[in-house]
Known about the structure:
The protein is of the alpha/beta class and 218 residues long. The protein has helices at residues 11-20, 56-65, 80-86, 104-115, 135-146, 172-177, 185-190, 211-217; strands at 8-9, 28-34, 50-51, 54-55, 71-76, 93-96, 122-127, 152-157, 160-168, 194-198. The chain has a single domain (8-217), classed as Alpha-Beta Complex (Spore Coat Polysaccharide Biosynthesis Protein SpsA, Chain A).
Amino acid sequence: MIPDDFPCYGADAIADALERTDPLESTIVGVVLAGGTSSRFGSANKLLAELDGEPLIRHASRTLVDAALSEVIVILGYEAEAVRTALSGVNARTISNPSYEEGLSTSVEAAIRAVGTPETDAVVFLPGDMPTVDSSTVQLLVDAYRAELGTALAAAYDGHRGNPVLFDRSHFDALLDVTGDVGGLPVLAESDDSALIETGDPGVLVDIDTITDLRHQE
């Protein structure tokens, strides 16, 4: 459930905040984290498994592309060339993470090092195994950020935290300090400026870890 000490904003509150403020003009980069080894999916790479006729990685990447962010980057690792080939025609830049076997934090680090220039104000992270997030959900996070409702924002559905998450550049150093097989959750949990965004989108809770998970989406 939503932590008691996290504020939570829905679409109406975000719209009201945008009307009351001068929204930030921001450069926001989308990052798809696609470096994992798919260890719970069996012998196949889950990111190449198909849903509605397309690999999962294309679904997740298109979510960010369709949100009209400044740029979309896909961080590759396991079977990088096969995943890159599956992204053919998608308007996203790919970066290989040679340290992917050391855990998710290394892909987060690769992303921050790739985009952590003064021109980048914030980053939206979406795991590559989450194929059903709506692009409007990403836009809601962006709107909440532009309305200055928080600098570390996580999508939520029905009181449950999910993905994607957005981090302002003020958190980039903290993200670089995370180690192991975790992403930005420690930074989100420890920030004094975190908030959850109630999206109404059940896709923010749907990740594909096993073949059974995939079948439930078909």
